Amino acid sequence: MESPYAIENAISHEVDIISMSWTIRRSVAELRSQSSGIGIATSPKKSIDDSGVTRLEKAIARAAENKNILMVCSAADDIELLAKDTLRYSAARVQIFRIGACNSQAQREPSEDNQTISYFLPGIHVPEARRPHSSTPPVYHDGSSIATALAAGLMSMILHCVRYMAQCQETRPFTPDNGLKNSNYYTRLAEKLKDHASMRVALTNIVRSQGSQQPDDPKQLPVYRLFREKAEKMQNANGLNKIVILEDLVTDLCSGISKD
């Protein structure tokens, strides 16, 4: 089984994010002893033996102990499975972002145990990337695995924006009176964002970008709304004005995150 090795290797290479788009259920015998007649034996999800479960749980727990690695996993598409019975999430519930799928209208895909899902992102009828003006018909994909990849990409982009600001500030004049933040400020902020709680604050700020402190659905991430506005402004800006707009975006995303 390669999953524990992949996680252990990611830890040793000090990655920023571990994205796990697979779902593995515990052994059928164990699940039967914990459940009361649920038809788990017919589940299409993969089952592994006890030694494989133990090694995988230890690998995930080790990653969870590392405060500088964000973990993202997909919810099970099988509605008969509960989060506590699926590996990744059950091994480190507090330190993993669990992602479910929704369509372009923000309608959620039926999945197991919605209460344990952190956020919903597009994962229904999502087209593959292709060249502009291509005559090849688009290929579409479905499932929480697609949404999980988008979630990991979103977190990576947030980290990149903050780190890019740190690089930009190294070349900009800084004095205590000119209102600019020095590069150390953004370097510390980027490190802080690798903590689960801080990244959750950034994602919550995206939710609140709809204009309400109490949104109708706090698990929906209106990414397009926030980033489109900033992207359009950057396209029409010149020179350092682009950096100012990016700085505004980073400020919006990281509002409420302590840099201490």
Quick overview:
With 260 residues, the chain is of the alpha/beta class. The protein contains 8 helices and 9 strands.
In the predicted model, the low-confidence regions spanning at least 5 consecutive residues are 26-47, 79-83, 85-91
Q: Specify the CATH class of the largest domain.
A: Alpha Beta
Major sheet: 4 strands, parallel
Average pLDDT rating: 77
Q: In terms of structural class, how would the helical and strand content be classed?
A: alpha/beta
Fourth-tier CATH superfamily name of the largest domain: Peptidase S8/S53 domain
Q: What is the alpha-carbon Rg in Å?
A: 20 Å
Number of domains: 2
Distance between the termini: 41 Å
| Strand segment tally | 9
CATH architecture assignment name of the largest domain: 3-Layer(aba) Sandwich
As for the CATH topology of the largest domain, it is Rossmann fold
Number of separate helices: 8
GO molecular function: serine-type endopeptidase activity
Keywords: Signal, Zymogen
InterPro entries: Peptidase_S8/S53_dom (IPR000209), Peptidase_S8/S53_dom_sf (IPR036852)
Organism: Penicillium cosmopolitanum
Question: Can you tell me about this structure?
Answer:
Keywords: Signal, Zymogen. It comes from Penicillium cosmopolitanum. One of its GO terms (biological process) is proteolysis. The protein has 260 residues and is α/β, with parallel strands linked by helices. It folds into 2 domains: 3-145, Rossmann fold, CATH 3.40.50; 148-253, no CATH class. It has helices at 3-12, 28-34, 50-65, 144-170, 183-193, 196-208, 223-235, 240-253; strands at 17-20, 24-25, 46-47, 70-74, 86-87, 96-102, 119-122, 126-127, 140-141. The strands form 3 sheets. The protein has a 4-stranded parallel sheet with strand order 1-4-6-7, with helices on one face. The protein has a 3-stranded mixed sheet with strand order 3-2-5. It has a two-stranded antiparallel sheet with strand order 8-9. Helix 1 packs parallel to helix 3 (50-65) and helix 4 (144-170) packs across helix 8. It is globular. The relative contact order is 0.11. Residues 26-47, 79-83 and 85-91 have low confidence and may be disordered.
